[in-house]
Each structure stands twice: as C-alpha cells, then as structure tokens.
Specification:
The structure holds three protein chains of three kinds.
Chain A: H1 2-22, E1 33-40, H2 46-55, E2 59-66, H3 68-81, E3 87-91, H4 92-98, H5 124-128, E4 139-141, E5 143-144, E6 147-152, H6 153-158, H7 165-171, H8 175-187, H9 191-198, E7 205-207, H10 212-218, E8 226-227, E9 235-236, H11 242-256, H12 268-275, E10 279-285, H13 288-295, E11 303-306, E12 318-321, H14 329-340, H15 342-352, E13 355-356, H16 365-368, H17 380-390, H18 400-415, H19 421-435
Parallel strand pairs in A: 1-2, 1-3, 7-10
Antiparallel strand pairs in A: 3-12, 4-12, 5-13, 6-10, 6-11, 8-9
Helix pairs in contact in A: 10-11, 11-18, 18-19
Chain B: E1 11-13, E2 19-21, H1 35-61, H2 63-66, H3 79-89, H4 93-124, H5 130-140, H6 149-158, H7 166-169, H8 176-189, H9 192-200, H10 205-234, H11 237-242, H12 251-258, H13 266-301
Antiparallel strand pairs in B: 1-2
Helix pairs in contact in B: 1-3, 1-13, 3-13, 4-8, 4-10, 4-12, 5-8, 8-10, 9-10, 10-13, 12-13
Chain C: H1 6-11, H2 61-87, H3 105-111, H4 114-146, H5 153-165, H6 168-178, H7 185-192, H8 205-233, H9 237-245, H10 250-261, H11 263-277, H12 282-288, H13 302-311, H14 316-348
Classes of the chains: A alpha/beta, B mainly alpha, C mainly alpha.
C-alpha cells in the first residue's frame, strides 16, 4: 500500500507546511501608514494615488473598488463588524440613507477636521448632501454629476440634423422637443438601418436608452421622493410630488415614441453600440466622458456636448467620509482634504472629466476655457459649469435607492410593452408603499 | 469480471441446478459505435471547453477586438499585456491565488478527517441515539444555505473574523454530507470482521480508525478532499460577504473585483477569470480520472 | 459557504432509503479501473442489528468522533438558522439600534408581495428549463458512453467534468456576453441559420430564463451523465439478456429495461437539481449586475430576492422570512418527490 504511505506522508507534510504558513499572515507593506479606502466607479483615480505618493512617500493608499450596490452593502456590514476602511466613498443616492445614521461616521465639523473652514469653497447643495439629519457633516463632496447631452456629430449630419453645439442645444429647449427631435432623427434613418431593425436585428436609434430621461428630468426638480422635515427619516412625498409624475410621464412618452435603442448603459452591447454608431446621443454626466473615451477610443473627435433640455441636470456624485471605526483618521483626513482641494479637483477634471464640486473654481479661467479634443474641442468646463449653476439642491431621502429601483422597473415594463404607463405607475406606487411606506 | 453468458457459452443452469442449453444470441450485445455518437460526443466536448478558449481569446485580443462584429475567434498577441494589467489593477491577485489554495487545502484536509471519523462512528460504532443523529444529519442537508447566512455573518462578525481567512475556514471544517458520504463509503468498504479482529488484538478505537479504516478509505477520502477543494475554489458569495481587503481575497472575489468600476474591461475580466480557472485545469489534468471515479462511485454506492 | 460542494450532489441520498439502490450482487464493478488489487471488494451494506455487530469496539467513542461535527454544526449551521427564524419576526434594520417586534407581519407582507411571487415563478421556470432538458441530455450522453466499444472512454468522461470546475462568475460573464441582444454570439449564429430576428435574451422574461438555464445546464450535464453512466453500468446483464431473447429492439430495450432501472437515479438527480435550482443565485446576479434580477425583475430568483431584501433594502427581518419560505418550499418539494417515489416504487413491485 505504497500509495497509502505516500498519501499519509504528503498529507502530514502539507498540514505542517500550511499550518506554519497560516501563522504568517500575508504581510502588509511595512510602511509607516497605510490608508484603506473603499470606493466605486472612478472615484479616487490612479493619478491621485501616484501623485499623493510623491508628496507623502510614507503613506500608502490601498483602494478597494466595488460595484455600486455591493460597495455600499459591504460598508454597512463593515459598520456592524466595526471593521471599516479609513475612507469610504458614499454615492449620492446612498447618502440619503446614511444621513439617517451619522453616528457611524466621524463628524467632520469637529477638530482636527474643522470642515467649517473649507465649507465656502464648495457648491452649497452638494455640501448639504453630506450633512446628517442632526447637522453632522459626515462627508465632503467630490464631484458634481452635472448632466449634458453627448451627441455624435457625424451621425447627426448623416441624419439631417444640425451639428454645431449651439444649434443642437436650441433644437431641444424642452423635453418634448427632445423627443420630437428623436423622432425626426429616426425618420431620417437610412433604408439599410431601418431594414436592420425591421428584421428585428440591430435597431439604430437616437438615444441609447430613453429610460435615462427619467433621472434627468427628476433631478431638475427641487424635490424628489422625500421632504426634509428635520427628522431622522424624512417625509415621503413620492406619491404627491408632481415632479415625480412628470419625470415618469416624460419618460413613458419618450419610450412610446421609440426614440431609444433600449441598450442599457455599461453593458457589452452598449460598448459595441458606442463603437459602431448604433445610437447618436447619450445623456452624459461629466463623469461619463471618461467612460466613453475608454470604451470607444476610435470615436475620438466624433462627439460633442450640447445643453440638456430643461437646463442642467445631475446624476451621481459622491461624498468622501471617514467612518467612526477608522484606524488612521488623521492621515485619512490629510489625504481627503488634499484630494478634494480645488487644485486637485481641477486636475482630476482635466484628466478624468469629474466635474468639481469646488465652486471656487467656477470662475477660474482654467476651468472655463478647458476644451476636450475627444469631444470636438467642446469647452466642457464652461458647459458643465453652466449646468451645475442651474441646478437646484435636492434632498435625498432614506430609501431613495429602493424607490429609484421600483420606478426603474416600472419604466422597464413599459419599455418592453408589458404594461401600460398608467398600470406601471400604479404598480410602482403600491410596491413602494409595501416596501418603504 | 462479471460472468458473461452471452458470447461464448452455450450452457447455463436453471433454478433447480440442471444444465440447460441456451439459444445463441442473434445480434451482438453492443452495437459498434456510430459516427453520429462520436460527433455528438465531440460536440459536447467542444461546448464543454469552449468558454475557456473564449476566455483566452478575449484576454489575448483586447477590448476593441471583442467589440467587433463578428468577433474574432483566434487568439491574439496581447495576453501578457492583459495579465500585466490584471496585476496592476489588483497587485494582490497573486495573493488571492495563494489564499485560495491555502483555504482550500486546510478545509479539504479537515473535512476529510472530521467527516471520516464521524462517518466511521455512524457506520461502525453502535452508540445510543445513533439512528436519530443520522436522520438529523440527513435532514440538515435539506436546509438551503441562505437561511442562516445573515446570522452567520453576524456571528462571524462578533468573533472578529471578518476580513480574515478564518471566516472561510472554520465554518467549513466539516459538512453534513461529507459525513454522510464517508459513512456510506465505510459501510461499504470495511468488513466488520476486520474491525473485530483488530480490536480483539487489543487495538483501541482510535487506533482501529487510524491504522485500519483510514488506509482503506484513503482513495475515497482523497476524492472527497478534491471535491471540497474545488468547492472552496469556486465559492463566491460567502467570501464576497466576509472579505474586504484585497490582500485576503480569494480568487473568485478577486476576479469579481476586476468588474468593479463602471467600465467593463472585458479583456481584463477574462484575463482574471483565466488566471482563476487555469490552476484548476492543471489540477484537473492530473487528478481528473479520480474525480470521475469519485462521481461514479458516489452514484452507485448511495 | 461551502455547503454546495459538488460532492453533495453525487452522494446525497436523503429520503430515498427505500432499499432499491445499489447493486444486489457482489460482483466488483468492471469500470473501477483504479481499484487497488487486494482492496476489499464492495459488499452489501451490513445489516445493522441494534445489539451491535461490532461488540468489541467501545461505542462510547461514537460520541467523541461525532462531536467535532456536531459542535461545528450547532454553532455554524444550526444556531444561525434558529436566529434567522427569530429575526423573521422583527423589523430589523441593521444600522438601527432598536428592532421592533412585528409578529407575523413579515410573512403576511411576503405572501402579499408581488415581487416575491414573481421570484417564485422565475425560480421554478428556470428550474424547469434547466432540469428537464439537462436530464434528457445526461441520460442520452450516458447511453452513448455506456457502450464498451467506445474508444478513449476515459478521455470523454473526464472532459465532461470540465464545466463543473469552472467558476460560476467567469461563466456568467462569458455567457452574458454570448447572449447579448445585438452582438452576442448566439444571436449572430441564429442569423447565420436564417433566423429572422434577434432575441433579447436578457430583457425578455422567458428568454432570460433560458439563458440562465443554459448556464446551469452547461455546468451540470456532464456531471449528471457520469452519474447516469454509473447507474447504467450497474444494471445487471441478465435483464438485457431476457430482453434480447424476447427480441426487443434497441429503443424498446432502453424504454423498458434501462429507464426503469434508472428510476432511483432520476429521482435522486431530480431532488438534488431541485434543491440546487431553488438556490440559483450567482448566474442571475452576474447577468443582471445587481440584486434586482433584471430591469423588470424578469430573472429575479428566490435567493436573489432574499439578498436584495437584506442588502439593498436593509430589511433583515423580511429577508429572514424569505429564507424560511425558501426552506419550506424545499421541504415540501422534497416530501412530494419522496412520496411520489414511494408510490411509483410500490406500484412497481406489484
């Protein structure tokens, strides 16, 4: 039974080896300070990490990025286990939730942070999104997800639309006109393009996904699903706020007009669609510019940016926070305040398109005059600044994201023709009532 | 080999023991393999390995190639570059591989050991309440794992094991069905007489287990260990839940990490997925046959 | 968690101890090529008499040997389940300090929750698409592999296990791309075969179930065919003898000899497939990218729904209630399956 003897030897050996190794934890880099950061998307970009390393060689930044929902969920469970990172990015739609639980974060008003000293440098309503129900400043704003319309100049030309960005912006001062422009575009599709869709194969269209209109319209209002009544949880107004119905109805109109290709953002079809000119417009927050550049580099110079219908919009954005259970709070604050300082925000905008929340920059010539060659040398700085200034502050409530999800699903059902808009609306309302109240 | 009455013999014995003549079979028992059968098998084999090939194609060609219509079907030159990108995106990817091997091995060894002693006890030791316990064990195999996952997380959190490999190892040290499998194996493979003889010679129970039972079931134990290792390697949800730092990630979480930004870098993801799967393929080439036997044994013994 | 080891699917025999499994004869199986010479042959399960057939071994050790398992199980298996059952009666927001007791409210809400029922429907639909075709394919493959004239048998058998060892995550990404509406390979191939439209495999409900079922089928067909192969090899030759003496055709032999003998295995694979199917999670998660199960919840499965309640809506009590419902469904289905088996078995033995 040689095999048996050998097996015994091997297993004994392996056991010894691994038990020994097990006593040796994977060693962390032996530097004076390591700051752990949890983030998502492109918040905290590679440039910031290498740059900060140059300035502070003794500090190592260790970043873990997750998908949006997963990231916030692991943050919650980390709070419970009291094993949190030193810095955590919180997306705007989740800040509504965390605003009810400021006790899990460091109050940045207190020493040594003294956030009051820098408050004036930032856009007020973006600042407010990091304030808890009891006034605790639990996070500082990173960027502003100001929205405009990214459009393909070549495709507009091909389908009989003007190409100059001013003229394009004038095509759609309202959402209704946006929808009718879309229909006009679709009517000018070539025979080949129309056939492709008749055969239910690739459908070309005006916009990637008409569903994105919902958030664009909703965020132009002054209130969404909640009203700030200075209580912990806020007051639910989703069923009575006319802005919500308006956003819903505008979107269903767009869906019925069939101006979109029904491709979801950040899917493989979307990337391919960008590369192959399947759709001509994307409602683009500033941070999406970098995404377009990365996924469709060959389309450089073919895009431009025009004004969003209805003037100004917001999608996304985040706050940086320091959880209460963080280990290296002072070092974390040093990095955070450096990262969010106007100078760095400007650099980040130029490199990655994240639009600054540091309002002191809005008069800065560097921002105003910045042109992006990928987008046909559009003065993106000036365009997004104008948009940001038009935005009204919006109170994000506790179960913001859950409600967004339910409305999103209702719109999807309308999009695939499974329900009428009226029925979908009713179902959404009742689902929200059950889920949230 | 089983007695084959068909081919050569003309005789058999009926119930009362009298010899009787048999008719010769007209047709051979098993027909020759048809071309269609081989084609089917080849197709299935191709489909089985195609995703690996696809992983390699995407990883070696880069994103733009993938976006082409129709997509490329041959490998490209950029594989080393993409793998480099994986390690840039996650410098601890190598550690993830190590962590997974470590956890997988420890868990495998522990499962084999603890399952076999418990299985031995259930099969051969007659202690009070044994039957009840066995029924209990079987019953617990029915419970879906999701039922307890949140409290388990809370428990592990209280114990301070969040973000450590301990959280992956300890709850998995022995499973109900490892115990059951071992019980079946031992029941089938160890004759009682052998054990009686040994204990009459004065061996204590543990000695009996270690010197007699374990050597005999070692093969099956090895297979159990293999399956356990594979399960650990492919486990995704629990490590995702309890591990937070890239240094302690296991390989599935590390691959998932690559998906994390808004940008879906296919080449990167497939490169990571390839790295996460390739070691298993190697392992499979080495011990694949044993796995096959393990699966087939288990099917019949139950 | 480690509970979903593939081994569990192979040897799980819960509830089916009706005595018809395994070989009756003592002949060693011809296909155990790696059986060591001199290793004891397989034997009939020993009849256990309660007075103890192994008198000489101290039974007290039984407690010692089973203790590690029971301790671990009690702490990490049972306690969480019990606690889960407890939480289900509360409104449990994880970050809150207080958790109000709500009695059966969570369950009442759940039974009234359209999203829950949608998840139930989706899960069963996916189960249907993945279990039935997979079973047919596995049996068919096993029949091909059964033939002793097959060349390179070991190679074919081994290759069939390859899908089983790949990571669910990687496969979900790949299949997600293959099933893309406009540019996925599957639709492109449909184009080549002259199909007139692209199917939206992800957005539409039934196609999304088929897509997910395909992933599951891909993973398990090879594995299950090995199980069926083993069972087929265990069918006594005498049965085939009598069949051929009676002049049965190939198909008749299969239908009236092979298939009935496979009955236990089919039940076993069915139960295991059901329990696994009810827990489908990683595929819809990766396909949809979030816990919703698609924009219109078209592939929201029970487990995904549980996680959504727990980690998106932060309603741990509600999630625990979902977990309990899943368990009840599993138990009911296993019971039905078991009962069905008993009935068919007892019909058989007439």
């Amino acid at each position: 039974m040689k095999l048996m003897r050998n097996l015994k030897r091997i297993s004994a050996l392996l056991l010894t080896v691994f038990v020994t190794l097990g006593l040796v934890q994977p060693a962390k880099a032996a530097t004076p300070v390591t700051i752990t950061i949890w983030s998502f998307g492109n918040v905290i970009e590679p440039w910031a990490i290498t740059e900060y390393k140059k300035l502070h060689p003794e500090v190592t930044l260790q970043i873990k990025k997750g998908e949006l929902d997963a990231h916030h969920q692991s943050l919650i469970t980390a709070f419970l286990a009291k094993k949190t990172p030193d810095i955590a990015a919180v997306e705007v739609s989740y800040s509504g939730y965390f605003r009810s639980y400021p006790s899990y974060f460091e109050d940045l008003r207190k020493a040594p942070y003294n956030s009051a000293t820098i408050e004036k440098d930032y856009l007020d309503w973006r600042w407010d999104q990091g304030v808890g129900y009891d006034g605790t400043v639990f996070g500082l704003p990173t960027d502003v997800g100001g929205m405009q319309v990214a459009y393909r100049v070549d495709l507009f030309k091909k389908h009989g639309l003007p190409t100059d960005r001013k003229a394009v912006g004038e095509l759609w001062p309202t959402w209704e006109k946006f929808i009718s422009t879309g229909q006009k575009y679709n009517s000018k599709l070539t025979t080949a393009e129309k056939d492709s869709c008749k055969k239910k194969k690739i459908c070309y269209g005006f916009i990637d996904n008409a569903g994105t209109i919902y958030n664009a319209v909703l965020n132009q209002a002054s209130a969404k699903y909640y009203e700030n009544n200075n209580t912990k949880d806020g007051k639910l107004i989703y069923s009575t706020n006319p802005a919500v119905k308006k956003a819903f109805d505008t979107t269903t109109k767009a869906l019925k007009a069939n101006i979109g290709t029904r491709i979801n953002s950040f899917t493989s079809d979307w990337n391919v669609g960008m590369n192959n000119g399947i759709f001509a417009t994307i409602l683009a927050p500033a941070w999406m510019m970098d995404y377009i550049k990365q996924q469709a580099p060959k389309t450089k110079g073919k895009w431009d940016i025009a004004d969003l219908p209805g003037g100004g919009g917001n999608l996304g954005g985040s706050q940086l926070t320091i959880p209460k259970s963080a280990k290296n709070k002072t070092a974390a604050w040093e990095f955070m305040s450096w990262y969010l300082a106007p100078a760095q925000q400007l650099t980040i905008f130029k490199k990655y398109g994240l639009f600054p929340s540091a309002s002191s920059l809005y008069d800065d010539a560097a921002l105003k005059n910045y042109k992006d060659p990928f987008f046909n040398n559009a003065p993106v700085g000036a365009i997004y600044t104008a948009g940001a200034l038009q935005l009204k502050p919006i109170f994000e409530g506790k179960k913001q994201r859950a409600i967004d999800n339910i409305f999103g699903q209702a719109l999807s059902r309308v999009a695939i023709g499974k329900q009428t808009p009226a029925a979908a609306w009713q179902q959404a309302l009742s689902e929200i009532k059950k889920s949230v109240g | 080999m089983s007695v084959n009455l068909t081919k050569d013999t003309d005789f058999d014995f009926d119930e009362s023991g009298k010899p009787m003549k048999l008719k010769r079979r007209r047709t051979p028992r098993w027909r020759k393999m048809s071309l269609a059968s081989y084609i089917t098998l080849a197709l299935v084999a191709l489909l089985s390995v195609f995703p690996f090939y696809w992983m390699y194609i995407v990883a070696s060609n880069g994103n733009e190639e993938v976006s082409k219509v129709p997509p490329t079907l041959v490998p490209g030159p950029r594989f080393p570059e993409v793998i480099g990108d994986v390690f840039t995106a996650n410098p601890f990817f190598g550690w993830s591989l190590f962590n997974t091997v470590f956890v997988g091995t420890v868990v495998a060894i522990a499962q084999v050991f603890f399952s076999s002693i418990a299985g031995f006890a259930f099969a051969k030791l007659n202690f009070k309440g044994r039957k009840l316990m066995v029924v209990f064990v079987i019953g617990t195999m029915m419970l879906p794992s999701q039922l307890g996952i949140i409290p388990l997380y809370m428990l592990v959190s209280e114990l301070g094991w969040i973000n450590t490999l301990t959280a992956l190892i300890v709850p998995a040290l022995v499973t109900a069905f490892g115990v059951f499998w071992m019980r079946q194996i031992i029941d089938a493979q160890i004759p009682n007489e052998l054990l009686e003889a040994a204990s009459i010679d004065g061996a204590g129970v543990f000695r009996v287990y270690w010197s007699i039972v374990f050597p005999i079931i070692a093969q099956s134990g090895f297979v159990l260990g293999l399956f356990s290792f594979l399960a650990t390697w492919n486990d995704f949800l629990w490590p995702l839940l309890v591990l937070n730092d890239p240094q302690v990630f296991t390989v599935q979480v590390a691959v998932n990490q690559l998906k994390s930004s808004y940008t879906l870098d296919y080449a990167l993801n497939m490169g990571g997925a390839f790295l996460a799967t390739f070691p298993l393929l190697i392992l499979f080439v080495v011990v694949g046959r044993r796995l096959v036997s393990g699966v087939m044994d288990g099917a019949v013994k139950g | 968690m480690n509970n979903k080891s593939p081994v569990s699917d192979a040897s799980q025999t819960s509830g089916n101890s009706n005595g018809r499994r395994g070989r009756r004869t003592a002949a060693p199986s011809p296909w155990r090529a790696d059986a060591q010479p001199g290793a004891p042959k397989k034997r009939k399960p020993s009849r256990r008499d309660e007075s103890g057939s192994i008198r000489a071994l101290n039974p007290g050790w039984g407690y010692v040997f089973t203790a590690p398992f029971f301790i671990m199980f009690l702490i990490f298996g049972l306690a969480p389940v019990v606690y889960s059952t407890y939480i289900a009666f509360f409104n449990w927001d994880p970050l809150e300090l207080e958790h109000p007791f709500v009695g059966f409210d969570n369950f009442a809400l759940l039974l009234d929750d359209g999203q829950f029922w949608m998840a139930v429907g989706n899960t069963f639909s996916i189960w249907f698409f993945s279990t039935i075709p997979a079973m047919i394919m596995s049996i068919g493959l096993a029949a091909i592999l059964r033939n002793p004239n097959l060349k390179a048998a070991t190679f074919w058998r081994t290759i069939l296990l390859v899908p089983n060892i790949t990571s669910v995550l990687a496969i979900a990404i790949i299949f997600g791309q293959l099933f893309g509406r406009d540019f996925g390979l599957i639709n492109l191939m449909l184009d080549i075969f002259g199909f007139d439209r692209h199917i939206d495999w992800i957005t539409e409900q039934i196609p999304s179930h088929i897509a997910i079922a395909t992933m599951i089928t891909w993973r398990w067909v090879g594995y299950n065919s090995l199980i069926f192969l083993a069972a087929m090899l265990a069918i006594p030759n005498e049965l085939y003898e009598s069949a051929s003496l009676d002049g049965a055709s190939k198909w008749q032999t299969f239908r009236y000899v092979t298939l009935p003998q496979l009955r236990n295995t089919i039940t076993f694979v069915l139960i295991v497939g059901t329990i696994g199917g009810l827990q489908v999670f990683a595929e819809p998660l990766t396909l949809g990218g979030n816990f919703n199960g698609g924009d219109s919840r078209q592939f929201s499965t029970l487990t995904l729904f549980l996680y959504e309640q727990a980690f998106v809506n932060n309603k741990w009590g509600y999630a625990a209630a979902v977990g309990i419902m899943i368990t009840l469904i599993v138990l009911v289905i296993s019971a039905i399956n078991f009962w069905l088996t008993r009935r068919i078995a007892s019909e058989d033995s007439k």
